[in-house]
Amino acid sequence: MQFTAAQIAILLNGKVEGSAEASVSSFGKIEEAQEGQLTFLANPKYEEFLYSTNASIAIINEAYELRQPVKPTLIRVPDAYTAFALLLSKYQEMATQQLKGIQQPCYIASSARIAGDVYVGAFAYIGENVRIGEGSKIFPHAFIGDNVTIGRNCIIHPSVKIYHDCELGNHVTIHAGTVIGSDGFGFAPQADGSFKKVPQIGNVVIEDNVEIGANTTIDRATMGSTCIKSGAKLDNLIQIAHNVEVGNSTVIAAQAGVSGSTKIGSNVMIGGQAGLVGHIQIADGSKINAQSGVSKTLKEPYSAVTGSPAADYTSALRSQAVFRNLPQLEKRITELENIIKQLLTLQPDSILKERED
Fold it and tell me: Catalytic site residue 242?
């Protein structure tokens, strides 16, 4: 597929500087791009490569001021990073649109209802009473359990497992190896020291425009639903426990874990390897730094925490600074103690008299 600068500018609502007929057929990083490729500049750290890149077209911010002439045709947009992401999405959509029909061998229950334009890859399993909306793609080796609902234009990548009764909205993407609806970790301690399993009879509800990375697990609720709300983005290797609620447009980085029944608000940002205990609430807009351990409710919206146990971000940084200076502070205190001892040795009577006065 080949596109001109003029065509790309129309799609991005951008302004062309240079040859509108310059064309590209692929993408490249700004430091490596060659002729016939499109690139972008958003991070100032890569600014120098704009003047040496061999790319045919480059997307840049409309406010950027050139320091010298450049080789590629430029397309100026309000936000180069967002524009480039949109372009990649469109490119990916065009590539996946070619996937249609049902490959064999695969199993589709007679009671399943699959809309037109759906792709089902080889060795996929689709259970009883499953509903799959128009334009969705079910890749090979995916497992879709009984009574699962999948909306329009969803992408279920290879080896994804979606257990029975779970519900997916529209434009949901789930990457390879992820498990949706496995049992929550519920065991009742017994008098003899053993544990009795508590049946997990709820489900998982994933709303519209959610993306979930590879090898993530989202447990079904004990009762009711574990819920991932619209626009949330989950990275690879995340554990979401039973009855958790992840709010609208919240993002969670890799290897984070959220314990049961915790409610996370909207627009929250959770760093990698962070851990949240169960039965707490995280206020809207909270920022949880990587490797933080959150052991209590965060009530203040748009606040930031770090550390384990997690504390206010600014206070924690100050405490860390003091901690790093402890050896120097110890040395200074020792020096002051020595000075005081010397003064007491040299003038003990006068010092004692001053104390009495």
Answer: yes
